[in-house]
Every structure is written in C-alpha cells, then in structure tokens.
User: Fold this.
Amino acid sequence: MPLLDAYTVADLLDEIGARLELSGESPFKVRAYQNGAEVLRALKLPLAGLVEDRKLKALPGIGEALAEKISKLHRTGSHPLLERLREEVPDGLLRLVALPGLGPKKALRLREDLGIDDLDALERAIDDGSLAKAKGFSAKAAEKLKHALGFVRASAGRLRLNDADALLSVAAAELRAQPGVTQVWPAGEARRRCETVGELCVVAAADRPERLPAKAGPGERVRVLAVKPGCFGAALLCATGSEKHVAELNARAKKEGLALSEDGLTRKGKAVAAPAEADIYESLGLPYIEPELREGRGELDAKDQKARGKLVADADLKGIVHCHSTYSDGANTLEQMAEAVRAMGLQYFGIADHSKSAGYAGGLKEDRVKRQREEVDALNERYAKEKAPFRVFHGIESDIREDGSLDYDDEVLANFDYVVASVHSRFDLDEAAQTARIVKAISHPATTILGHATGRLLLRREGYKVDLEQVLAACAKHGVAVEVNAHPVRLDLDWRWHARALELGAWLSINPDAHNTEELKLVAYGVAVARKGGVPPDKVLNALDAKAFEKHLLARRKRWKK
DNA sequence: GCCGTTTTCGGCCCGACTGTTTTCAGTCG
Assistant:
C-alpha cells in the first residue's frame, strides 16, 4: 500500500466526519474531523515526515485520537473506524445530505421514518406523496427537493475539472510507464478546460497500441485511446472535440478533398503527413486553435480569430487579490499568505477577508479591520526595504446586504485599498430583486470587484437568479471588475459570459478565493476558463503590474472623494 | 474529538432565515 499524501488523508477525514454526522455523532466531534482535514490541507511540510517523527500532535486541532487516525490512514490507506462507518452509513445517505435544504438531521429522519437512504427512494417518496405527509416535511419541501434532485441527476457522473485532472494525471502516469509508449495526453472536456467533465479520456501513442489497456486510472474510469505515433495528432484532435468543432473541421476538410478521423488526415484513403495537431490545422488552412476554444462557437471564423487576439496566460498575472487569512476563515496567517504569493514570483498580494456580517466565517468587526490594516502596513514597510519589490493591498470581501448596501460605514470602507463585494445570503430573492441588489452594490464608489457573480457551486448548487446582462453593464458603467472566481467549485463568472462582459466594457479579475496557501495555485483554473472565454491579458485587472494596479485603486478613491 | 493558568469538564466562530413540530429545531453560509 502506498503512503497517502496529506490531501488524500484530509479527504478521508472529511469522509469520516460526514459519516459520523450521519450516525448521529456530536456536531463538535464532526467538526474536529473537518478541522483536522483543513489542518492537513494547509500543511507546509510533507505528511510522511510528521508521521515518522510523531509530530502530528504538535499541530493545532490534532490530538491523540486524530494523530492515530491520520498515521494509520497515511500508512495503510484506511482505518477500522472508516471501514465500520462505510458499512453502517450507506453511500446513498451521503448523497441525500448533499441536497440543498436537506441536512443530517432531516436525512436521518428520512431513514428512520420512511426507510429512505438513497436518491431513488427519495424520488419515489416525493412522487407518491408520502414525503409531503412525513413529519417535518411538507408539499413545499417536497417540491424543492424534487427540483434539487433534478439538478443532481443532471450532474450525475460528472466531475469538477480539478477532480478530473487528478484522475487523468494518474492514468497518464500509468500509461507513460508502459513499454513502447511515446506520447500520452489527456483529451476530451478536461483538455478543453470545461468546468465539469463527463467522459475521461487520454490519448496514448505507442508502437504496439493494441497492447495498451482500454481503461486506466483509479477505478479504471479513464478511457484510453491508443494509436500509432503517426496518428497521435489526429487522434488527440478528435478525442479532444468538441463534437461540433471536429464536425466543422471535417466539413472544411471535405471541401479540400480531405477526410479527418482518429486514424489521421487522409486524401483518397492515403495519409497526409500530419503527425501533430498543428499540422492538421495548417493542412486545413487554419492557425492552431487552442483546445479551450474548440466549442464550435465560431472559432474557425477568421474574423473571430482576428478579433480575439492573444489569450491571457498564467504568466500574465502580476498579483493575486482575493484571499482569506486566519483573520476570518482562512487556515494561514496574513504573512504566510503574502509570503506564498511572493514565492510564486508575483508582485503583489491582496487580502480580502470576510466582512462583519459573515459571522460564520469570522468576519472582521471594525477593531479587527484596524488591526489587520496595521499588520498590512508593517508588512509593506518591511517589503519596501527589500531588493525585490512586493506589495500587500488591504481589501475586504464585503457581504452585499439584502438591501444592496455594503457591510461597513463609508468611513470604514474608505480605509480599504479595495473592496470585493459578494452575495453570501438570501440566494432566494427573485431575479428583479437580486439584480437590483447587486447593481446597487456595484454602484457604491468603494466597490472595486464584484465577487462570484452568480454564487453557483458546481455540481452542488445552482447560482441565484440574476440578470447578468444588467449586472455586467453596471460593472462596465461603474468601472467595477467582474471576478472570475478561480476556485474549481465556482468558476464564476461562467466563461460563456466573458466575451459579453468585455463587449460591454467591463474588466475581469481572476481570483483564487484561496483559504490557505495551497489553494493559491487554483488561480490557474480561473486563467483556464478565462482563456476559454476568450479573455486577453489587457482586460484582466490583476494582470496589471503593481504600480498600475495601485494607480487604478487610487483613481477610484479620488473619484469617490470628489 | 480538541482544548485549557478559568485544565481533567464543559465549552466549542454565530446570526439569520425558514417552515411549520406555532415556539424553535434545522439548515445555511
């Protein structure tokens, strides 16, 4: 059994926590496991060393019992407690609590009163009316659950992009270890950087492709398309899709007397020399088209290519400006976060912890805001003395209150370098009210960035109802950047709206919303979807260098004070 | 399950909304 890394152990601790909760355990014990998982994810050192040196107990929130569990999970991949819970708490119950509006208490009640322990049984109980009559439920509750069920069913079998990446990289590594394999590349929706992925596929080139397995990766979930090296480009192109993109390429090929398939590009059955994807595009009189853009949305159109220009890339980002620290619900200190951003080679870091209304997340009351400002100033003083310039900006992720106001008085707001305004409550407002609320927050002169525009949680919760056209137009009008929240659970603003946002004249800001130093690297997912949305670097707020970014913030302040 | 000069028990980030058990438990962020 291989030694499990901190992240995998953290997932197992979360699983133990979730199953304990569903066996009626104390919520505090449950939280202890969740907390332990967070601690592991924020770990600076490799887990193996801590286990060997018996240093786990030195970590905050890890005591005797958790240290034992973590050690055993790390060494053996499992633990008797986990095994027992897997027997006692059915997987279906875990899926039930994932439904919005259905927590552990109600799920347990469903199991005890109605014998419901999976989604199918729940659906039957909704349809035959027994749920509506059950104690603690109602016709309205049943209707809501029916809707939630539909959402979950539609996402069945799909994975978020980061989870797909993890499985694909394991599968690719397995294949690269096979004899005679020359090239391996993930394909499909994951390569197109779609926010969720249905089918997992890798393309492998080998001298004897017939010898490669048809499936690979954990649980053999990844389909393997094995081809001869000469066909790699064509196979990769076809397996990457989208179907529409490939069909359009094929139509173009046909006009030139060519045919495109997984076996290659052919003329009258004879192969045309085109070993790489770029060669195939060239043979069809096209420039290379980035995988992210291959959605059949006009990317083959020369006009479209000209208008699009260069796509933003990881290296274009100069700073990271929406992160959390231990001041609110982050796992790392302000200084650790700043240092981690500096270590990424960036020029500036913006802290934007939760504002005071977000009690659940330890939102900052005014006195903590002041203290944080002092710490930011002290850090900047220190950084100013160093050779490589680095800046920390003091921001806040202000809740947008139900009436559209921000979460502090103007005089407090005026002391921040910038404000990310986000909705964290009352998701259920109707579209007109939600839109008006958000537009009002955008129009506040303190607002710099609109956080996660729809509040969606991929595969878990739909976004709130909002008229994005109006919201984006308001952002353009007031000079507020629209966040592309890079967290793989969000990827919000949806890439399908990026071009429209730019058209209306809004800027975008690619933010990881990191709650620990590890999550900083998730910013790459935001870059990926921004590329998919056709975003160029010169429309990305945090692609400005530190000076230009500061100038932008100062100009907004000046305008406010007038 | 963790933590602690208020330490071996009794707390544990908290405030708001929701629906309906009609006075508050459950859920959410």
User: Anything to note?
Assistant: Chain A has three domains: 6-154, 159-308, 317-561. The first helix of chain A runs from residue 6 to 21. Chain A is about 45% helix and 15% strand.
